[in-house]
Every structure is written in C-alpha cells, then in structure tokens.
Amino acid sequence: MTEQLRDGYDVVIVGGGAAGLSGALMLARARRSVLVIDAGAPRNAPAAGVHGLLAREGMTPGELLERGRAEARGYGAEVISGAVAAVTRADDGFTVTMSDGRTVRARRLLVTTGLVDELPEIPGLRARWGRDVLHCPYCHGWEVRDQAIGVLGTGPMAVHQALMFRQWSADVTLFAHTMPSPSAAEAERLAARGIAVVEGEVAALEVVDDRLAGVRLRDGRMIHREALAFAPRMVARADFLAPLGLQPAQHPSGMGEHIPADATGRTEVPGVWAAGNVTDLSAQVGAAAAAGAFAAAQINADLITEDTDLAVRAYRNTFSAEKEARVGELVSADRRHGL
C-alpha cells in the first residue's frame, strides 16, 4: 500500500536509523511537519544487539528502530519505507524524488543515511559479519572477551586495532594479510603486549557448527581463532545528493568517505544538514542519536528565523497598506471641508 503524502514538509529526513528518528522526534515535538524516508537497510542489522546505549543495552537493532518509529509517529512525524533517488533545489527549498517516482517538497533536508561497509572478498567473511567477524571493540569487545581474537591487516589502522582488542583478550594475533609490515616501533609495541604477527595473505575463514574456528592462510596454514576483527572502508550513502553538488569527501581518518558537516550538522549546501555515520564514521548508536537530535534543533532554529523574517515582511506590508488607507481617508475628509 502506498502512503498518502502531503505536497510539502518543513523537513524531510532521509534515513530512518537512530540519527534520523531522533531528529524526527525532536522536530515533531517542535510542531514541525516531518517526513522520514527509510530504505530499510540499517548498517547494524547483522548485530545481535545494540551496546553502549544507556537503558537500551543489548536491545536488538530491529526493536530499537521499531520503538523509535512509534515514538516519532506519536508526535505526528510520518515515517515511510522507500529510497530517495535524487534531491534538487526548488524555489522554496528542495524537491525530493523517490525511486518509485513520487516527489515531495521540503523546506529543509536532514541526511542520516549512514554508511556502507566495504568488506574484503575473503570466502566466509561476509556471512560472519556482525557475528564473530567484527570491527568495533566498544560494540563487540565484551562479547568476545578472553577469546582467541584475530585482527585482519587491511590498512593503516590494523596495528591500532590489534592494540585496542588486547584490552579485551590476552590472546590477540595480527594477520598481516595485505597491510605493509609493521614498522620497528610498531613491532616493538605489539611484542610488548604479547600480540603475535602472522605474515602471509589470508585465503578463507574456517567455520564449524556455525562458529568461526580459524583463519586459513594462502600457504595452507590454519590458525585457530574464535573472532576476527578488521577495519572496513566506509562509504557514505549519499549519491542522491549529487544534483545539489554535494559529494562525499575523504574522511580525515583515511578510513573512508563522508559528507562533511560542521559541529551543528550543517553542510556546505544551504538548507542541508547531516547527522550520524554519514558524516561521523566513528559514531555509535548513542552518538548518532544525539547528533540527529542536535541537528534537528539547529534546523528548527533556522526555520524559526525564516518564519520570523517572512512574518516581519508581511507585517510591514500590512502596516504600509493600512497607513496609506488612513492617509487617503484624511485627505478625502480635508477636501470635503474645503481644506
């Protein structure tokens, strides 16, 4: 069933994750008309639970989003399923075109579409992603504590990541894979923490009874591991912004691409804000939700300024018309009295 949409909204939010729904909640409570368009592909869908989020620890990502949608709708926000194909500039804001051809107008746009993790093409890896193949120690470290953890060397963050996961387990092995060999200083730091370095390219993951059993190298060696971590390259979901001239840029960390935005979430395109992982690669769920709410407050303030400016112009026009009419009445009265 296709939802019946109004012609225009104060704010259209593209992306219905933690950042987008928090923004929708904030704006709806500010009595703004809000439409959330969600493509239904949350980045954390493979995870068993959300962690580090106060009072929601361990809740499944699906339940968190379901509750968020219900809360936003409870204050009047509209949340629909769909993908945005393009956003173009209109006289009074933006025209948002969805992949099914529908269009809506928006005075402001909040982009909260998140990221896509680019995974190495290693047999068995993709199927384990978000389970025992991980990237964030703060999201998953507790769940794999004291296990045999491997770190896959795919880029410059591998040594840092190995040292990070050492906080959760004394049994950490760094697989050099495609990364450059650690420098002398890095090798010393790894050795000091008891982290072994295994040279050679990883060929596949070994899975037994739906659990990671180990890492098989190209030369045939099999290294027992119960969890594997690596840092994927992350790319912003933002192709639909191209008509506005807003393109993803390389993130300062070198870990991928993002939509640049200032501390308030404002992008270089007037009227467009961004929040959550689409602009902050490292934001966990709590940080993304907070950023969405904060950006929404800035958008509402911007709309208040615009609404007030429009009201002042209307007030001045009305006042001038009334004044002119009164002057006309006085002139007519003077003429009647021969003055």
TrEMBL record:
| MF terms (GO), sorted A to Z | thioredoxin-disulfide reductase (NADPH) activity
Sequence ranges assigned to domain FAD/NAD(P)-binding in this UniProt record: 9-292
UniProt entry tagged with the keyword Iron-sulfur: no
What InterPro entries does the database record attribute to this sequence? Answer: FAD/NAD-bd_sf, FAD/NAD-binding_dom, Ferredoxin-NADP_redctase_2
For this protein, what reaction is catalysed?
Answer: [thioredoxin]-dithiol + NADP(+) = [thioredoxin]-disulfide + NADPH + H(+)
- Which UniProt keywords are given for this protein, alphabetically ordered? Flavoprotein, Oxidoreductase
PANTHER family with a match to the protein in the record: THIOREDOXIN REDUCTASE 1-RELATED-RELATED
- Protein name stated in the entry: Thioredoxin reductase
Native species of this protein? Nocardia tenerifensis
